[in-house]
Design brief:
The structure is a homodimer of 349-residue chains. Chain A has 11 helices and 12 strands. Chain A has 349 residues and is α+β, with helices and mostly antiparallel strands. In chain A, the strands form 3 sheets. Chain A has a 7-stranded mixed sheet, sandwiched between helices. Chain A has a 3-stranded antiparallel sheet with strand order 9-8-10. The first copy, chain A, has a two-stranded antiparallel ribbon with strand order 1-12. In chain A, β8 and β9 form a beta hairpin. The longest helix of chain A is centred in the first third of the chain and has 19 residues. At the A-B interface, β4, β6, β7, α8 and α9 of A face β4, β6, β7, α8 and α9 of B.
Chain lengths: 349, 349
């Protein structure tokens, strides 16, 4: 691997840079804070593909007018427990948090509530949204579509998004938080390995003929494989269909507007919130916490240090980043500083 | 592989044998019909582990009194969109169909409705239940827990069920129906390969030390792996927690009563139904059907004959079985006939 110079940045400094840049490009104070917080959370947890590096796409989208600063999401209860959300081409995080705020209130009344979100933009890492739901003692599901990068099993062209699934369940002291893409590898990882000259792990991508490849360049001309073979393909496709149907958004190659800088977002999100109190047996949260601890302490295979529960690694990484700072490749950090400076200079023209 | 003698049985003959056996062991006419139909559907679709071979466990459970013939499920709307179901230790299929009947009606009103089912028994193959939901034009999710057979990633003991996930989405002419276990292989397949002397496919199981094994005997002393590595583990665990919490049922090794013949069932089910009409854009079903056809017709990798949509293979197998009959290992078929005869003789005692 070629050397990458890293710079260590204090979390608050990274957050305020993100907030300032978004503000310079027209985001309101509230939008800039929500979006910068979300990007920072990804960097704190080591999920850099969803971190501040997305500022360059977000600001280009703001400049192009396909991401609309100041858009106010329109929320409409189409039925007693179903909320239709039109994000008005604004920030995805604004739309999804507005939806969650309503769903949490409604689910406490009806036991379950769901929202379909369209014209809402990229909602970034799912875990922080899920934690909003779990923080209220509720169960959450989030599914979201994205640009077609993944081939169906047996195919060789990209027809499915990386379609992440997020699920949270309350537990003590920390909730269970699953936040996973249904793709075998991220596009960002392929790009990074291509730049550093590293091969891909086997079984993650196919070339343009549909043959498995570990060459990042051949993979970029081919497609990403779904995780977990035909079962993962089935889940990825289920997310694609469920989200499109329940949010009236696009399918397959018609999904645009999260990676590019000149198309309005046609992806969608589906959020489902369930209230365990409706079951009338709240003691189960204690049983869940105890069960998770049993798994953590279970007999391990040779060479395994720890058995993890989804969310454990993220939380540990977050604590480390808050204590020691976030490590950014210096080229990335410089580009973020430039985004701040350029716009600052441009504003004086 | 050792030879297995097969006998070809007409679907109606298999169904009526199942119905008659269940009746002899005390099931009401309605219970026997529903349960026999469900077992038959699995055999028709080539999922023999969920087919008539389960009659031996069901009848033993009836004899032992841990499965209660004639139990009437108690359904209670705990909140506007949340239904708590107590199956009263009756047939799982009776409880889940009663729940679905209510959920479909409620979701048409509230947009989304969910049910947690306890004391409901094994609900068998999920696809036929999902088709009940899709047949009404609705979207369905079913998750269900089962005996701990699967190890957590990094572990070597069974702490998770095979925890299947079912998702259906309406489409023309046939719905999308995903019905998959979150385990890498079924316990039935391990048993069958052990009997026939075949090795397991790699990566499906670990031995008692946590090392991957393809030896069925070593696998039975170890545990089944989750499908798809740590992501599949995360999903399997999510199903375990969601179901237990929303149905007030057991977790991990406390789940019993679907494989054994002397314990009341402590597993649970979670069913969620969503109404696409609530979105107000029903034309999307046509878009979904067209998208699925695009995937079926997409460029294929070398050596691939067809790209399949979940549900396609099952439907083809079902049509073939209805036309040509169902192939049962003759030893299995003989044991089913004996179950019928023995009880018939016993009834005269």
């Amino acid at each position: 691997m070629l050397g990458v110079f890293l710079i260590v940045v204090d979390a608050e400094r990274a957050r305020s840079l993100g907030e300032r840049v978004l503000g310079r490009y027209g985001a309101s104070a509230a939008e800039a804070r929500l979006q910068a917080d979300l990007l920072l959370e990804a960097d704190l947890r080591g999920r850099r593909s969803h971190g501040l590096q997305r500022l360059s796409v977000l600001t280009a989208r703001l400049e192009c007018g396909v991401l609309v600063a100041g858009a106010v999401p329109r929320l409409e209860w189409k039925a007693g427990s179903f909320l239709a959300v039109d994000g008005g081409d604004g920030f995805g995080v604004v739309a999804v948090r507005a939806a969650i705020e309503q769903l949490v209130l409604r689910a406490a009344d009806t036991g379950v509530a769901a929202a379909g979100i369209r014209r809402g933009g990229h909602i970034g890492m799912l875990a922080p949204h899920l934690e909003e739901i779990c923080g209220k003692g509720l169960v959450g599901f989030i599914m979201t579509t994205s640009e077609a990068l993944v081939h169906p099993t047996g195919g060789r062209t990209a027809l499915l998004g990386t379609n992440p699934i997020g699920i949270c369940v309350p537990a003590d002291p920390e909730p269970f938080v699953l936040d996973m893409s249904t793709a075998a590898i991220s596009a960002g990882e392929i790009l990074a390995r291509g730049q550093s000259g590293e091969a891909l792990p086997p079984g993650r991508c196919v070339d343009s003929h549909g043959n498995p490849t570990t060459d990042p360049e051949l993979a970029r001309a081919g497609a990403i494989s779904p995780f977990g073979g035909s079962k993962g393909y089935g889940l990825s496709l289920a997310v694609e269909l469920l989200v499109a149907l329940m949010s009236a958004t696009a399918l397959g190659t018609d999904v645009v507007g999260t990676l590019d800088t000149d198309s309005r977002a046609t992806k969608g999100d589906l959020v489902i919130v369930l209230d365990p109190d409706a079951v009338g047996q709240v003691a189960t949260v204690a049983a869940i916490s105890s069960y998770l601890d049993t798994i953590r302490a279970a007999p391990r295979a040779a060479g395994i240090d720890r058995i993890l529960i989804p969310g454990d690694r993220m939380r540990a990484e977050r604590a480390r980043s808050l204590r020691d700072g976030i490590r950014y490749p210096s080229a990335l950090w410089d580009s973020l500083l430039a985004l701040d400076d350029n716009r600052s200079a441009g504003a004086d023209d």
